[in-house]
Design a protein that fits this description.
The complex is a heterodimer of chains A (114) and B (109). In chain A, the strands form 2 sheets. In chain A, strands 2, 4, 5, 6, 9, 10 and 11 form a 7-stranded mixed sheet that branches. In chain A, strands 1-3-8-7 form a 4-stranded antiparallel sheet, with no helix packed on it. Chain A has 114 residues and is an all-beta fold. Chain A has strands at 5-7, 10-13, 19-24, 31-38, 42-50, 53-57, 64-68, 74-78, 87-94, 104-105, 109-113. Chain B is mainly beta. Chain B contains no helices and 11 strands. In chain B, β9 (84-91) and β10 (97-99) form a beta hairpin. Chain B is globular. The mean pLDDT of chain B is 95. The chains are: A mainly beta (114), B mainly beta (109). Chains A and B meet through β5 and β10 of A and β4, β5, β9 and β10 of B.
Chain lengths: 114, 109
């Protein structure tokens, strides 16, 4: 069974640019989650999508946004990139909902802002 | 606000030397406590879910336990391949999964 896949593996941008990160969930999973893992800060919850709808959002500015497509894949968009956006962005998926459902992670996209 | 604190930040063991990792938490209405393992350059790998105080789960050399305030990940007779960062996360009434910063475990042969 294929796991969660993310692309690209690495992404290099400059300040002010926009970045798009992509995620394909495990087959059968309808929920997709995005996390930011910055050095020294641990995983921080960004967004949760299910059935194409945004279900919950972490404490991040509106320039972090995303969407979920009918095939349950998802993309994360980060506008007006800042140096502190440099981090590993992880996508996870699960069967619907938070409750009692472990999230399974991809290997992430390393975003570097120059 | 839900919080998770893991200790120690780093732990070095000799192969076969058993030990425990700690995860202290404060959460409003615990729905689940999750343990993950993360290898360098990889995403977290799910290990266990614990739902209520007193619950225990085992997998190979790992055993996770849960009380009302903390969880322990016991590692029995570790091997070098157990070297990784172990992450603890809680899910409460806010629905968000809150992670600790992890314990980096190194097992020397």
């Amino acid at each position: 069974e294929a796991g969660v896949t993310q692309s690209p593996t690495h992404l290099i941008k400059t300040r002010g640019q926009q970045a798009t990160l992509r995620c394909s969930p495990i087959s059968g999973h309808t929920s997709v989650y995005w996390y930011q893992q910055a050095l020294g800060l641990g995983l921080q919850f960004l967004l949760w999508y299910d059935e194409g709808e945004e279900r919950n959002r972490g404490n991040f500015p509106p320039r972090f946004s995303g969407r979920q497509f009918p095939n349950y894949s998802s993309e994360l968009n980060v506008n007006a990139l800042e140096l502190e956006d440099s981090a590993l962005y992880l996508c996870a998926s699960s069967f619907f909902g938070w409750y009692n459902q472990p999230q399974h992670f991809g290997d992430g996209t390393r975003l570097s802002i120059l | 606000e839900d919080q998770v604190t893991q200790s120690p930040e780093a732990l070095r063991l000799q192969e076969g030397e058993s030990s425990s990792l700690n995860c202290s938490y404060t959460v409003s209405g615990l729905r689940g406590l999750f343990w993950y393992r993360q290898d360098p350059g990889k995403g977290p790998e799910f290990l266990f879910t614990l739902y209520s105080a007193g619950e225990e789960k085992e997998k190979e050399r790992l055993k996770a336990t849960l009380t009302k305030k903390e969880s322990f990940l016991h590692i029995t007779a570790p091997k070098p391949e157990d070297s990784a960062t172990y992450l603890c996360a809680v899910q409460g009434g806010s629905e968000k999964l809150v992670f600790g910063k992890g314990t980096k475990l190194t097992v020397n042969p």
